[in-house]
Amino acid sequence: MKKAHELLEIKPYNFNYIKPNDSVLDALDLMSRRDIDFAIVSENDNYFGIITENSCAKQFIAYGELAKNIKTKEIMLNGLPIVNYDDSIETCLNTLIIHNVVYLPVFDNFSFCGIITMHDLIKEIQNDNMQGVIEAEYTYA
User: What is the overall mean pLDDT for the chain?
Assistant: First the structure.
């Protein structure tokens, strides 16, 4: 089974970085322009957390604050479980399930490598299953 770093290698390069002191409005604009549902909060190659469309919506609903008045660092998710660069896809999936989260930061020692999402894992598992079906059909044909 593939490792976390192999899954990150096949993902397109992430341009979804935002700084901790940028406004939530900036983050929403970035996510809208790039058609993504999260942005990585980072500065000077330091990972701080992620901000999601969902976390922005919850903040607005709970407090009615305007997105331009809130900094990303105020509502980012920064307590997510992490996985290691060499962890298996199975370990990543189990971590997501156990912690009931959708996003997993991947680290190699203390160096941030990227984010694996539930969607990434489902897609990879589907690809593996389809490959198995194709191989089985080829073997029995």
Answer: 86
